[in-house]
Amino acid sequence: MTDKNNLGAFDRFRLAAAVLVIAIHTSPFWSVNETCNFLLTSVFARVAVPFFFAMTGYFTDFKSAARIGKLVVKTLAMYAAAIVIYLPFGTYSATLRMLLFDGAFYHLWYFPACVTGALIVFALEKLPAIPAFAVAGTLYAVGVFGDSYYGLTADLPSVRAMYDFFSGIFSYTRNGLFFAPLFMLIGSALSKRELGGNRFAAGTRFVLSLLLMTVECLLLKGIAFAPHDNMFFLLIPAVIFLFDFLASFKAKPRPRYRKAAMWIYILHPIAGYWIGILTTQLGIEDFSARYSFLNFVLVTVLSFAAAFGIELTRAVLERFCGIGRGVMGRRQVNQNLAHKLYDQKIGIPKGPDPLAGCKGRALAGFGRSPKRRVAAKTKKR
Questions:
Q1: I need a surface site. Which of 130, 174, 293, 372 has the fewest CB within 10 A?
Q2: What sign does the CA torsion over 325, 326, 327, 332 have?
Q3: Rounded to whole angstroms, how far apart are CA atoms 107 and 56?
Q4: Domain segments of the chain: what residues?
Q5: In whole angstroms, how far apart are CA 271 and each of 26, 145, 168, 278?
């Protein structure tokens, strides 16, 4: 099992994955080169969301109902906050389809997908590994043939009827039912294995998987009409090898990066909205299409500034006001402060505790009955 206290590379890649999501939504090379834009947004950047799902699976104990409940509550709270944030930017019809599958805004589908996927994996973890992966893999295959492979199966009446039925429930098969479970299950399985043994081999496998996924995407683009380009079969090995590659970099965790990456994901459409308003006021029409790369850079910079501004504010409030620590966190801080003040008052020097040996001997018999303490002393003699 990989040491989860030494996975700082994963926290750093969360930021990179958030940038890749921005790239998908802004098409950086649209005004430069269509092929480059396709390779970035339809191939390489597609590892970002599966990576987030796999990270959720990696750090979640799906056999614990309490942990799953905590994950669901936390995700739904973030989803509710995001919905409130986006209320001024559009009018929504609060339907079950929107809330459970499509998301209140075009990128917020991730949150209900995370909840649905976690609940499915929680049920699958009760099965042996092979049947669990068979079920998750089947769901993913159904999703793929309703997404990037749809043009190959749309002429089959029974298949078309099935996906027409699905379209009445959700807009995409890229959701928590078909997309999320497999990658969460992969993340959970990888958490039980030792990763990062050979950086060069892992990096080579990751690059090869990306190249093969490029071939897959180009073939689909050339021979079939795909209404969407979110799900590919070769995304599966790409995410696995990406995990193995990142685990080879030993670095301390960066919890602030994790939270900042989520804020970047949530807020980047707002950054794009205000950039569009500002450029229109300046008399620049179709700024995002005519200057796509500059638009991508500006959206990224504003999103990072907003996300790290929020995290900096949170850190200041935690440090000076105790907000966000929770009851146990504040209690521990108060106890540490009390001990420091007491040590200063009686003049105990800094450094190793001079009373450590005495404390250890005094606590050795703590909690024993008098008879047991006497028996312990007799045994030592």
A1: 130
A2: negative
A3: 18
A4: 4-253, 267-349
A5: 11, 34, 32, 11
Helix ranges (DSSP H) in the chain: 8-26, 34-42, 48-58, 65-86, 96-97, 110-124, 129-145, 150-153, 157-167, 180-190, 199-223, 235-247, 255-281, 287-290, 292-321, 326-346, 356-364, 370-380
Q: Tell me: the pLDDT tens digits for 74-121?
A: 999 999 999 999 988 765 555 777 888 888 888 999 999 999 999 999
CA end-to-end span of the chain, whole Å?
Answer: 44
**pLDDT over 70 (residue 52):** yes
Single pTM value for the model: 0.82
Tell me, what's the pLDDT at 338?
A: 44
Instruction: Give 325's pLDDT tier (boundaries 50, 70, 90).
Output: low
Specify the amino acid at residue 167: S
In angstroms, the CA 243 to CA 187 distance is 9
> Residue 143: exposed, middle, or buried by beta-carbon count in 10 A (0-12, 13-18, 19+)?
buried
Q: Residue 232 has which token pair? A: 């590919």
CA distance to 28, 29, 93, 275, 293, per residue, from 296 (Å): 5, 9, 30, 10, 5
User: How far apart are alpha carbons 231 and 221 in whole angstroms?
Assistant: 13
- DSSP reduced 3-state for 371: helix
